[in-house]
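Researcher: I'm comparing several assemblies side by side, and this is the next one on my list. It has 793 residues spread over two chains. Same procedure as the others: predict the full complex and return the structure.
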Amino acid sequence: MAGNAKSRSKSEADAEPAVPAFTKDQELRAYREMLLIRRFEEKAGQMYGMGLIGGFCHLYIGQEAVVVGVSMAARPSDQTITSYRDHGHMLACGLDPKGVMAELTGRRGGLSKGKGGSMHMFSKEKNFFGGHGIVGAQVSLGTGLAFANRYRENDSVSLTYFGDGAANQGQVYESFNMAELWKLPVIFIIENNRYAMGTSVARSSALTEFWKRGMAFNMPGEAVDGMDVRAVKAATERALEWCRAGQGPYILEMQTYRYRGHSMSDPAKYRSKEEVQKMREEHDPIEQVRARLLAGGVSEDELKKIDAAVRSIVSEAAEFATQDPEPDPSELYTDILL
Amino acid sequence: MPTNILMPALSPTMEEGTLAKWLKAEGDTIKSGDVIAEIETDKATMEVEAVDEGVLAKILVPAGAENVKVNTPIAVIAGEGEDASAATAPAAAPAAAPVAEAPASAPSVPAAPKTSAPPETPEFPADSPMVSMTVREALRDAMAEEMRRDDTVFVMGEEVAEYQGAYKITQGLLQEFGARRVVDTPITEHGFAGLAVGAAMSGLKPIVEFMTFNFAMQAIDHIINSAAKTLYMSGGQMGASIVFRGPNGAAARVGAQHSQDYAAWYSQIPGLKVIAPYSAADAKGLLKAAIRDPNPIVFLENEILYGQSFDVPRLDDFVLPIGKARIARAGDHVTIVSFAIGMTYALKAAEALAEEGINAEVIDLRTIRPMDVETVVRSVMKTGRCVTVEEGWPQSGVGAEISAQIMTEAFDYLDAPVIRICGKDVPMPYAANLEKLALPNVGEVVAAAKAVCYR
């Protein structure tokens, strides 16, 4: 490629030094954070089933290593923005599970006072810019966060997540062009979970190697094993370094998998049970860490304690989200204009 | 404690379903994520995954059972060494959401707060020195003054910098403020509108120039879904202080795709303010107010008005209130309500009517949303008659809204039905004669005013 842009093919990426090992503390952190997301999402699915969560509910189960690996590499001052499959991103940003769950149930203690719902949540404090329900819209918005970073000459990077489905929206390429043209500090994190709702990438995309999608703009990209939290963290560190050095945007294609349907009402008939089962058994991001921890001498008991602590956090969140009152009717007309 | 597994709702509309198959048997160990059963909903067959861990102690609803109501206990999971019998009693349905307390007599939907116009105060001292300037110069001065005042204000759009603006509205801004704050964009309306909203969400104050609002249709998703709704969806945490501006409506002989008035479109959106000035003074004072406003604003200009000159107060900081109509001409026989270029027809019609002894009161709305209904209603209570004038189409237009407001607020004062003068209900034709027919004209306004006066 021309210029100083670099691009790694998957085989080149494989030729990189092996994925750096985590310390025990890093493994434990990754395990705890991924487990929290999984248990939270399982509980959300259950509460949806009980009618406590309405409308659409898109679960992140299977993709946990992506957001946890990225957050382990990022700084709190970096911004995060994503699509409607956003619960995991908020938990990884350090938002209170109670506030997230209470938003799912539409209660006054929810992050958006119950007015946003599953797909629309924000936190100024944690630099979390949503939660967007229009496929691909967050890509332009995230590029704008990066524009603001450059305008202010700060050192922050916009972590802009979108899926393989959104990667076919026109505004994504409008954003790629401006991001590279103006050398904006943004990492385009494409979470390729192989299906845009029910359409596999092969049926929707002329070029299924999403990490190459920036080539027309001279933007570097690489493919990452999005089921391995260590690989995610290492790739994110490379991309962050590129952005912070003022070299412009970077694409990370996180190759991942969602175990559940697109949303709660999706029976997922477009793929075989064997395919899902194989991913769960051979590539599960949490099981990988768990196996390494056990092999490294951490006891089952220690992990059980973490499991119990995570379950208790999720139960408390569910309890809060069930008991917290609905918003006051007067909230109908607030927060429309400042 | 043993836990009941309840019949899940698997779509927003499901109330009951068939328990098609059990994939686990009593006595089986269950981990979270295990598929335990299949359920047929009204739409599809879905798998049910376990959330709780333990032993499947008892199946309460057998495979094949139909019409199982949502939230009916279907099985019991016991932890290690627990007795399942404790949980076989039907669990109560999950508590309904505690409803916020409201007096029993209160209506279920709270009334929308009335937006009342800012108080009637002189907009600038009567003895202010005046200077004649074009709308174009007024808009440029407004942006330059606000950019001097606040470093977070910047302008972006196609040809705004080096070309000095497609319509020369940004003339000289690049020279004064540099390329950091006067940003030429690629031709990419959807993308740069979204980028600007993102920058606004993080605290900058962008002015987005659309070469015309016709092109902003490519960006309307970001104006509405990203800019206007975020404050509400975030529970008040973050919004977008942003101005979308550019020429709106018909220019001359540019055909259907370049000649549309969007005032009514944007005025429907809660979370937006919509401004459409006519005079240079209003253009300047309201654009300065729009840039300072913390909300997303659609600022509709008009290409034909850009070159027209008006008196503008020569003040250090001339800012006008958003949401306040202006009585451009006082009268007591009929109220003519208009805005933007519609004011040219309205004012000329008022002059013609005066020659026939009809004193028309002409109201320039200036802001379409929030609309200053109070000023319009007060005038109609005096005149008993109203004509609206706009270049936009009739159906669901600004005139339609004014008519409805008058009917609600001043029905007993009306001596005649409101007449709307609008652009004709056709795409804008190119041929000079047809274009002229498609637009409103002074004669139509005069005829309508006479009609409501029964003359």
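Model: For your comparison table: The longest helix of chain A spans residues 24-49.
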